[in-house]
Amino acid sequence: xxxxxxxxxxxxxxxxxxxxxxxxxxxxxxxxxxxxxxxxxxxxxxxxxxxxxxxxxxxxxxxxxxxxxxxxxxxxxxxxxxxxxxxxxxxxxxxxxxxxxxxxxxxxxxxxxxxxxxxxxxxxxxxxxxxxxxxxxxxxxxxxxxxxxxxxxxxxxxxxxxxxxxxxxxxxxxxxxxxxxxxxxxxxxxxxxxxxxxxxxxxxxxxxxxxxxxxxxxxxxxxxxxxxxxxxxxxxxxxxxxxxxxxxxxxxxxxxxxxxxxxxxxxxxxxxxxxxxxxxxxxxxxxxxxxxxxxxxxxxxxx
Length: 303
What we know:
Layout: E1 16-17, H1 19-22, E2 28-32, E3 36-39, E4 49-53, E5 57-66, E6 72-81, E7 84-93, E8 97-101, H2 104-116, H3 124-128, E9 132-134, E10 140-147, E11 151-157, E12 160-164, E13 169-175, E14 179-180, H4 184-194, E15 202-208, H5 217-220, E16 222-233, E17 236-250, E18 253-258, E19 262-265, H6 272-281, E20 290-301
Antiparallel strand pairs: 1-7, 2-5, 2-8, 3-4, 5-6, 6-7, 9-12, 9-20, 10-11, 10-20, 11-14, 12-13, 13-15, 15-16, 16-17, 17-18, 18-20, 19-20
């Protein structure tokens, strides 16, 4: 079980903060050159990947450990990406970071330059009067499967479409054919045995956000919000209340990320037969019939 759930934004789950206040607490900084999994503990082959850090990040390293297999791990306190800082508390493997250290003053200078840029939105009223559209390049949905009782694997969907109107009406469409498990034959089996994409090509999530309830993100930049949603898969619908973190990253970008995983049961969407067929195709292995789902969605003004 995870000891702590981590929320990141813009490529991982997080809350945007100021770089300068925490920089002095870092032991050293590292450059993350590739998209990297963030774990809740430094155990080689164990621990659960709870987020994906974007490439070209600068990370504040608070602690370093070596596990029993000789793998070095770094514990991150925060990282910066695209000139924005995000708080985290998790571990990355040594291979995910570059050897060269980046001075804290350089990271702080980037943040100070970002803060000095002028507002472009025309103010609070214009910000809340906008319609928003999903930025596919900065958004992701991950889900976790468990097989044989102990084998944990993280998967994703690569094709998403979404929008949020000025009145708070939100819609997200997930192209189920875009499932990515890292293994081609498993992708094919999920598409046709589990999701039945020929008949049900999309999953849909709808929601209604109360604009008045999220008014304070203009001043606070980030807030937690319990979002009622309806999920429709394979012609069946279920309602959930999902705790999310909504962040005004810039005046022209908003993120909505899961504050904790949402557990989705296959039986709620008629997937029992599909799970059985998946099990048989993989050699009658046991597959847990529910999956924790996390998401990291970025929205930009609709054109």
